[in-house]
Design a protein that fits this description.
Number of helices of chain B: 11
Order of helices and strands of chain A: HHEHHHEHEEEHEHEHHH
Number of helices of chain A: 11
Strand order of the largest sheet of chain B: 3-2-4-5-7-6-12
Helix content of chain A: 40-55%
Structural class of chain A: alpha/beta
Shape of chain B: globular
Shape of chain A: globular
Largest sheet of chain B: 7 strands, mixed
Radius of gyration of chain B: 20 Å
Number of strands of chain A: 7
Number of strands of chain B: 14
Largest sheet of chain A: 5 strands, parallel
Strand content of chain B: 15-25%
Oligomer: heterodimer
Structural class of chain B: alpha/beta
């Protein structure tokens, strides 16, 4: 795609694949919530529902051997980069068949074969890892690119600024994707974030842009440009994607009225849903019919159901495995 | 040098700093994935001049001067290590481990385990320890116990030039994060260092001096303190064995225990703070493993539980001295001789 690509230039194949992948994430997360509610899943999890356009828009512009680092709200990034629902569900349930043999859980899924260097339960904790992966790509002379996903909460962490400084100094092929879902856990980001967000990366001379995260084609087009730029030696970039978290900070955060209104939640669901918006666009542009979209949804649902059944039946690890993998 | 390792053809007299420099140069030459990253590591060669000359041979792409961002360079090192490189991150003072702890303890140490063994972090982090340099409370700490407490990190404490070379080369080749902590008071110490490609496996203790009456387990620069004490004790007719674990993780428990079983008495000397320190762990290992052979409780001599003070007469009393070690050994032997 050229630098001037308009969202409308997207071919049917990729456009439908984006719809499928977003649907897969949504259904996966709904099922994850259900696993929590039915007490089948140990611990908690953080749902990505509402933000699907960002992960899929970005990752659909990457190669399989490009790297990503992810966050505690990481299922969407993981699926968008190519992971299988079955092994992700298995990891959520602490099963041996999981991506991390049950040792990582929801907040630590890594899928190195698809370039996912791992979700991270320290806010902003993966900024160094992504920057280091970009350093590695440059030193080893590959043209890989690293993408660092983080929420706007990570804007409060010093590590991010330390590594953005180095990425700019050394012209590293890294894209910092800030998913602004408006809330640092239970606190509106404006209560925690001074000044303009984009002024921060710009202070380092980093190419910085803002995009509507609910518009997957816009996210994809911006990412394609910034990734092509990084791949060809143009250096780091920062993409601020404005989005919204439909659910709470985690699955147990159900009473949210003390920090945001139900009207606000409903507005985003009704008017800014990335799946609905993209589905409407596909139909309006003659790339899919309502029947086509339903078929894609059914396919995704079948994949989720098969994956869930696999994970529920899969065995737990033998307790003897507890001492394995401490050291390589 | 009493190490059992394979010794290369020849040896040369080197300072501790030169031995480290030689190890780095050899590994940089041997493996293009190795690079050095840190503050003032290139032209300056670090404030301790340990890295002098490396940038001239390997260039600024492989001996990389960084901003003053300890967490950032460690995190960058973790990511580079996860993706095919072997970084050697230089953290000038061990006190700055406080700044890198998230990247070291939460990221580097746990990545292999959390990923079910799929990702690994072959990162070497070199830093320093040691008081009595008149550098005050924020440039003098010995924080090896902090990192040794985190599963997933290996911890190396070389005590002489030959060990510094052999252990650092092993650390760089290891597929795990390894923290190598050098006592900055040791950089000028001289010793015989084997030439060429010579490594010491991590997890093998070294008996620095053989003896019969008391075991002194000592780490890092405390090995020299222990050896000086042993020389004093010899004049009193007490034969002290000095054992250097060389690596806290992995720990060569059996060599420590065997020595204490042989002598029946043990003292642990370490420059970390006494409470909850490495000396406590080493003493516990000996007490557990050699209990039925011990004639006296295991004694610990470590740094006082105070921030390191600036004023020389204050600072000097905070760390174990040869005299203190010898006195403790005499008491230990005297007490038990009395019971016999």
């Amino acid at each position: 795609m050229s630098a001037t690509a308009s969202p409308a230039a997207l071919d049917a194949g990729p456009a439908l694949a984006m719809y499928s992948r977003m649907t897969l994430i949504r259904l996966f997360e709904e099922q994850a919530n259900e696993l929590y509610r039915s007490a089948k899943m140990p611990g908690l999890t953080h749902l990505y529902i509402g933000e699907e356009g960002v992960a899929v828009g970005v990752c659909s512009a990457l190669r399989r051997d490009d790297w990503i680092t992810s966050t505690h709200r990481g299922h969407g990034h993981c699926l968008a980069k190519g992971a299988e629902p079955a092994r992700m569900f298995a990891e959520l349930l602490g099963k041996e068949a999981g991506y991390c043999r049950g040792k990582g859980g929801s907040m630590h899924i890594a899928d190195h074969e698809n370039g996912n260097l791992g979700a991270n339960a320290i806010v902003g904790g993966s900024a160094g890892i992504a920057t280091g992966a970009a350093f590695s790509a440059k030193r080893r002379g590959t043209d890989q690119v690293a993408v660092c996903f983080f929420g706007e909460g990570a804007l409060g962490q010093g590590l991010l600024y330390e590594v953005m400084n180095m990425a700019a100094l050394w012209c590293l092929p890294v894209l910092y994707v800030c998913e602004n879902n408006l809330y640092n856990e239970y606190t509106h980001y404006l209560e925690a974030t001074a000044g303009e967000i984009l002024a921060r990366p710009r202070a380092f001379g980093i190419e910085s842009r803002e995009v509507n995260g609910q518009d997957i084609r816009a996210v994809h087009a911006e990412t394609e440009e910034l990734v092509a730029r990084a791949r060809s030696g143009g250096g780091p970039a920062f993409l601020l994607a404005n989005t919204y978290r439909y659910h709470g900070h985690h699955v147990g955060d159900v009473d949210r009225t003390y920090y945001r209104s139900k009207d606000e939640e409903q507005l985003w669901r009704d008017e800014r849903d990335p799946l609905a918006l993209h589905g409407e666009w596909l139909e309006a542009n003659g790339l899919a019919t309502a029947v086509d979209l339903r078929r894609l949804e059914d396919e995704a649902r079948a994949l989720i159901e098969r994956g869930l059944a696999f994970a529920l039946e899969a065995p737990f690890p033998d307790p003897g495995q507890v001492t394995e993998d401490v050291f390589a | 040098m009493s190490s059992p390792e394979v010794v290369a053809a020849g040896t040369r007299t080197r300072t501790f700093a030169q031995a480290i420099n030689e190890a780095l140069a050899e590994e940089l030459r041997r493996d293009p994935a190795v690079f050095v990253l840190g503050e003032d590591v290139a032209e300056a060669g670090t404030p301790f001049k340990v890295l002098s000359g490396l940038v001239q041979e390997f260039g600024p792409e492989r001996v990389v001067d960084s901003p003053i961002s300890e967490a950032g360079i460690t995190g960058l090192g973790v990511g580079a290590a996860m993706t095919g490189m072997r970084p050697v991150v230089d953290i000038m003072f061990g006190d700055f481990l406080t700044l890198v702890m998230d990247q070291l303890a939460n990221q580097a140490a746990k990545t292999h385990y959390m990923s079910g063994g799929k990702l690994s972090v072959p990162l070497t982090l070199r830093t320093t320890m040691g008081a009595t340099r008149r550098s005050a409370a924020q440039h003098s700490q010995s924080l090896h116990a902090w990192v040794a407490h985190v599963p997933g990190l290996k911890v190396v404490l070389p005590s002489e030039p030959a060990d510094a070379k052999g252990l650092l080369k092993s650390a760089i080749r290891d597929d795990n994060p390894v923290v190598v902590i050098e006592d900055k008071m040791d950089y000028a110490v001289k010793g015989e260092v084997p030439d060429g490609d010579w490594t010491i496996p991590l997890g093998v203790a070294d008996v620095k001096r053989a003896g019969e009456d008391v075991t002194i387990v000592a780490t890092s620069s405390m090995v020299r303190v222990a050896l000086a004490a042993a020389a004093e004790l010899e004049a009193d007719g007490i034969s002290a064995e000095v054992v250097d674990p060389r690596t806290l993780v992995p720990l060569d428990r059996s060599t420590l225990v065997r020595s204490a079983q042989k002598t029946g008495r043990a003292i642990v000397v370490d420059e970390g703070h006494t409470s909850y320190g490495a000396s406590a762990e080493l003493a516990a290992v000996i007490a557990d493993g050699a209990f039925w052979s011990l004639d006296a409780p295991v004694k610990r001599l470590a740094a006082m539980d105070v921030p390191v003070p600036f004023s020389p007469p204050l600072e000097d009393v905070t760390v174990p001295t040869p005299d203190l070690v010898a006195r403790t050994a005499r008491e230990l032997c005297g007490t038990t001789l009395g019971r016999q």
